[in-house]
């Protein structure tokens, strides 16, 4: 153990830092990671194996203004910022991979791709279950309508997972949702009584 010479003050311990949870998401042939003040995207080119990196600073208003630190507002702002950042990084990785295959993706192609994806998702996971439940159960406020709608959604998720070879993940997903629903009912909702 080293000793501190006389007349020299020992170094101050570092102030405790508040915990920060780093996040990220998958992009095409790569990954995006987000830190406290910066983000980086790394994408591997399939043809050469070279890894391209794009990095940047997170300097939006939600990182500087105290208003965006308020509890409810902070969550909504961070969700919107993460969707924006994630989409931007995903589009960059798509351009990089398309360029590697001698295909040029412009703003129009990317906007059309995003529009088709959003509309397709809404039709598949909202419209189709509502339409199917309407044909089977009739009234939208009935128990059977909600049950059929949920079963159609679960069927769509299981069908996708089975196609990808991840059916065990589907069972874990459904079990997790069931446990969360039961715990919410027990601890949050509590006793339910009929009024009137």
Structural write-up:
The protein is α+β, with helices and mostly antiparallel strands and 196 residues long. It has two domains: 23-105, no CATH class; 119-189, no CATH class. 54% of the residues lie in helices and 12% in strands. The chain has a four-stranded antiparallel beta sheet. Helix 2 (107-137) packs across helix 3.
Number of strands: 4
- Our count of domains comes out at 2
- The overall pLDDT, averaged over residues, is 82
Measure the end-to-end span.
Answer: 77 Å
Q: Per DSSP, what share of the residues sits in E-state strands of 2 or more residues? A: 5-15%
Proportion of residues in helical segments: 40-55%
Strand order of the largest sheet: 1-2-3-4
- How many helices in DSSP terms? 4
Largest pleated sheet: 4 strands, antiparallel
Which descriptor suits the 3D outline?
Answer: extended
Rg is 25 Å
Task: Report the uncertain regions.
Answer: none
Structural class: alpha+beta
Brief sketch in words of this structure:
The protein is of the alpha+beta class. Helix content is 54%, strand content 12%.
Defining traits:
54% helix, alpha+beta, four-stranded antiparallel β-sheet, 2 domains
Please describe the topology of this protein:
Blueprint: E1 23-27, E2 30-34, E3 38-44, E4 51-57, H1 71-100, H2 107-137, H3 143-164, H4 167-189
Helix pairs in contact: 2-3, 3-4
